[in-house]
Amino acid sequence: MSAQASAAGEGSLRSEHVQYLPGGDPRAIRQAAVRDPETGKIFEGYAHFAARQDAIGNGVKPQELVGYEDGFVTNSGEFLNRKEAFKRAVELKQYAPKPTAPNNYNDVLKSLEATSFETQKKLREQGYDPAVIQYAPGENLGAKEFDAELKKIREGKADGQTFTPEGLPWTAPKEPTDIVTLASVNVPLGKLTRETVQEAIKPYADLLDEPNVVMGTFSFSHEGKPTASIDINAVVPQTHRENSLKFAKDNDQVAIWDAAKNETVSSGGKGNTKLKSLGEIMDALDLLRSGEEVDVPEIVRQNRDLGPAEEQALLGGMGGTREPLSTQAQSNMTKAELAAHFPESVKPRRRNERIDSDIVGSPLYRESKNEAQAVTNFARKLVDFANEYKDHPVFKSGLKWYSDFAPRLKKEFGKHAPMMAELLAATSPRNNPTVNYAYSLDAIEGFKAGRYDKQITKFNEGWEMAKSNKWQSWFAKNVKTGENPTEAAFMAHWIKKHNLSPRQSNGAKFGMNSVAVLKTLAGTWMESVEGPKVSNFVQNLLGTGHGATIDVWANRTMRRVGYSGHVERWRILPKNEAAVTDVDFHFAQKAFAEAAKTLGVEPDALQGALWFAEKQLWADRGYARLDLGSFVTELEKTPLLKQGIAQRLAKSKQAAKAKTAAQAELFVTPRPEK
Predict the structure, then answer these.
(1) What is the 3-state secondary structure (H, E, C) of 75-88?
(2) Model pTM?
(3) In a 3-state reduction of DSSP, which class is residue 289?
(4) Cα(322)–Cα(671) distance, integer angstroms
(5) In the structure, what pLDDT confidence band is assigned to residue 29 with cuts at 50, 70 and 90?
(6) With contact defined as beta carbons under 8 Å apart, do 26 and 66 qualify?
(7) Long-range contacts from 360-367, C-beta under 8 angstroms, 24+ separation
(8) Banded model confidence at residue 50, pLDDT cuts 50, 70, 90
């Protein structure tokens, strides 16, 4: 038995839903590992979390680990990905299904008699894919040190301890870090046991799949009673301290923990945290760890929006079999619960892992002789889909979506129509058409009224500095975080330092799209976005181009066409969808163009029709609630929306005037009596 294996707890290397027992063969799996795909450098640990900690301890920045490959290393130093490791473990009898008791190795060894085929079949029957073996943190907590540390806390011999997801005491990395609590459950101190901790973290266990997330438990007095707090925490570099404190305050947290100095740092909150569900916390986590601003109210809005359920009953479906879940319901589900509820969904390794649609890697594409044949094969499927829905109201409505909207946009906004089209594109990510249009109208009305003139002028000053390479000296003088100096980093700090993010007429930001709105108003957004989607969409909105915009819904259609019927789990859940790649975009455009030619319509008209048809299909199958919001409908509300903007601005102006008057009274010296 290797020393590393012993450290993992009684001779097993626990991994995602499996255990790999130690072996002496040079080809046998030794430890979990992560690998730099560019340099090939390997970092090891008893689990993937520990391997990532090893990488950080050797100078790898936490944000760089996102691109690292998870796998395993053999006794000879060979790196194996998860699928290769699974096969190797079965071959060398290192594989063991998750045992009913952490150290019941008689049952484990019996299970190794299964053949590779039978083992994989059993895993699939249980809902696991050996090619994407998933992580179930906190279920074993098998380290003896875990029980010993809990006992110390119960008996008052220690105030608390931070643990790895496997239940081992956590060691802070060399880089100074802060501990920011993500979820917390209080229990009576005397009941602080392994079982209590497992039960407390169960709803949030997916968080422990993430790099740089740890558990913690600490004793304190609550209403005069000895209490233990069981926490799941993010480990954030102190270079992001300012952002971490802002997040903690916005989330109404009392403090964060300085892991380098072992002391609390007050954030000014009262302890009534606003982010409650697993989905909300997950959405905040990546931003928090990378030092990006976390818009707490916007995350809450997006995760608790129940959706326009009324449309579900108004439009006839095409044979639906399941009631869709609300956004709020899905936000509270773990990835295992989501996988069970949606048997057609791809199981991610991490709950919010981004997964490419990979249309050009789909079975339908690969069974074609060449790209031209693949285009034809996909086009035929698109034509079949269109013919299936051609008489449905949603298809007919979507078919004229662009042709109806473009002339109305130009008529309503005149010379500002191009900017309005860009604003609609800039505020479309993660917003339905109602919010999308309202944001855009508020922004353009503010622009025309001159509300953003100062911000635009200051932004353009920074933009010119970035283009003329005069930004380095400013960055060196004003940014003390040790952050890698880039033009993008400079612009982010420039916007933050000068408070340039525009606000709506109600004083709130434009959700997660505030910077995109600022760049659009300054006329630089189209220069800064990557990929063909945005410019194509703007052309569609203005009626100057008719190529299909391969947006999230067109991408979903192409994914379904390419994978459904070929693989059991094909649908990528919305939280896991990566942006459409340029390769997939251009291929899909060709398929839409050929299908549109067959049907005798413009490609953008077909995209609009299938956009609504795909939404209807998702609603019928219970994937999502039906939302057929349209810019055409929203544009008709423009007079009322403008009236609302004017009322909010007037109210804000009156409030500011009253505040100024009240402050002036404080400085009035009363005249002395005679």
Answers:
(1) CCCCEEEHHHHHHH
(2) 0.71
(3) helix
(4) 76
(5) confident
(6) no
(7) 360/583, 360/584, 360/587, 362/559, 362/562, 362/563, 362/566, 363/562, 363/563, 363/566, 363/567, 364/561, 364/562, 364/563, 364/566, 365/562, 365/587
(8) low
Q: What is the dihedral of CA 274, 276, 278, 284, to 10 degrees?
A: 10
- CA–CA separation, 2 vs 300, rounded Å? 47
From the list 523, 539, 549, the residue with the least C-alpha distance to 419 is 523
SS3 20: strand
Rounded distance, CA 578 to CA 391, Å?
Answer: 32
C-alpha closest to that of 282 among 329, 225, 331: 331
Alpha-carbon distance values, 318 to 399, 524, 616 (Å):
18, 44, 8
Cα distances (Å, whole numbers) of residue 238 to 83, 283, 289, 481, 492:
36, 21, 10, 8, 18
Amino acid at 111: S
DSSP string, 231-288: EEEEEEEGGGHHHHHHHHHHTT-SEEEETTTTEEEE----S--S--SHHHHHHHHHHH
Residue 348 · residue 335 · CB < 8 Å? yes
Q: Can you tell me which residue has the tokens 């072996």?
A: 23
To which H or E segment does residue 644 belong?
helix 638-666
The two three-digit tokens of residue 410, written as one number: 């130009």
Within 153-206, strands assigned E span: 160-163, 177-188
- The span from the first CA to the last CA of the chain, in angstroms, equals 97
Cross-strand partners of 221: 226
Which residues are paired to 345 by β-bridges?
571
Cα angle, residue 69 at apex, residues 65 and 73 outer, rounded to 5°: 115
Those residues with Cβ within 8 angstroms of residue 614's Cβ, 6 or more apart along the chain or in another chain: 553, 554, 556, 557, 560
Look up residue 585 and give its two tokens: 């975009």
3-class state of residue 499 by DSSP: coil
Burial bucket for residue 385 (CB in 10 Å: 0-12, 13-18, 19+): buried
User: 539: which 2 tokens?
Assistant: 């052309």
Total residue count of the chain as it appears in this document = 674
Token reading at 279: 């989905």
pLDDT in tens, 134-152: 333 344 455 678 889 999 9
Place of tokens 């790999």: 20
Other beta carbons less than 10 A from residue 92's beta carbon: 18
> Phi, psi (5° rounding) for residue 581?
-75, 155
Task: For residue 99, give both structure tokens.
Answer: 């045992």
**Which string of b and e fits 402-434 if b means at least 16 CB within 10 Å?**
bbbbbeebbeebeebbbbbbbbbbbbbeebebb
CA-wise closest residue to 17 among 110, 140, 169, 118: 140
Tokens 């804000």: give the residue.
652
The yes-or-no verdict on residue 239 having pLDDT over 60 is: yes
Cα–Cα distance, 386 to 611 (Å, whole number): 10
297-337 pLDDT, tens digit per residue, is: 888 888 876 544 444 443 445 555 567 888 788 888 888 88
Determine how many CB atoms are found less than 10 A away from the CB of residue 246. Answer: 16
Residues 123, 129 contacting (CB under 8 angstroms): yes
Lowest pLDDT segment from 20-24, 380-384, 620-624:
20-24
DSSP state of 137: T
Residue 268 CA to residue 255 CA, distance in Å, equals 7
Mean pLDDT of the region 511-537: 90
